[in-house]
Amino acid sequence: MYGKFGEVLRSELDAIREQGLYKDERVLEGPQGAEISVGGRKVLNFCANNYLGLAADPRVTEAARRTLSEWGYGLSSVRFICGTTTLHKQLERELSEFLGTEDTILYAACFDANGGVFEPLLEKDSAIITDQLNHASIIDGVRLAKAQRHIYLHSDMDSLEEKLKAAQSAKFRMIVTDGVFSMDGHLAKLPEICDLADKYEAMVLVDDSHATGFTGPTGRGTHEKFDVIDRVDVITTTLGKALGGALGGCTSGKKEIIEWLRQKSRPYLFSNSLPMMICGAALEVLKILREDPTPLKTLEHNQARLRGGLRELGFDVDEGDHAIIPVHFRQHEDDAIIAQGMSADLLAEGIYCIGFSFPVVPRGGARIRLQASAAHTDEQITRCLAAFAKIGKKYGAIG
Ligand SMILES: *Cc1c(COP(=O)(O)O)cnc(C)c1O
What we know:
By secondary structure, this protein is an alpha/beta fold. 43% of the residues lie in helices and 16% in strands.
């Protein structure tokens, strides 16, 4: 039987390769950081979610090493059988403190947090109102729930209001949004969303994976930035981006919700506990965030310099203050070709960044997405800007 199936896969794979949609893995030959080894060459990395530069920070790796020696490698159990340690409880407590919530439940990843949050909470008689551009894990999580699904136009408050009106007969309503949308670095309009939630009696869930640790005055996330900490009911987020970058996620919020998830959430009940060394390292990250504002300040400085520098060079870059910085080619017919070509040439210049085009982003919306990190030095950002100036001219993206 397999022969025929394999043939179909082979021809489908060839087809996506021909369309230029095949995803190759670029293999790193050393640790994650501002400078990485790829193909025997050192290049500057502008496409990691390592926002605070903590992925290989000695304080974090040492905490992981220490925890590994003290606690061993793994638990061989789910949480409720024999897979909960004092470290898991401490991390849940400290994440709640950091996020400003009542309680937190850990998952193996934020993908699992989103996969396990909707189905137990929202039954057939309830409604989920979700942004069109929400992360794939939210889309999948929402699919698993029996609740009615309403998809509103991306960050469009009229569309959200319309959907909320349509969902008024539901017993409970939940608005779901990414805190930061990863292709644009745009922040969700949380104050307006919370106002509409009040007006139409809905709960609010924010997935803050691209914000936790570095957005807002003390890095707590978009809810801190917009001063709506008490108006967001549920936060899902990841330990796999700014908070050390290894693995792990959580759902945080009202205590009854978290308690219910511990009883009912399937990725929590039926999947292994987070390794203790990750808990130990994540606790160290939270300690760094409490005691040392340097990474946060450096990231802010770096993103402002990178964004400002690109704008000064004449690139089509929006104003903003998030570490995700898309370089657009909106004035160019051949935007996709420029984005792909430029990113290849930039790599030859030692700058690693990725060009995105349709269908990952809308047609005509091709871009190179840069991500600033606290790990970048001023000199490295200068090199990035110089390479963009050179390659941008070659492609006619700047004058
Ligand atoms: C990265 C990301 C996730 C997935 O996080 P993992 O912990 O890697 O599974 C979920 N939601 C959003 C918005 C993300 O950006």
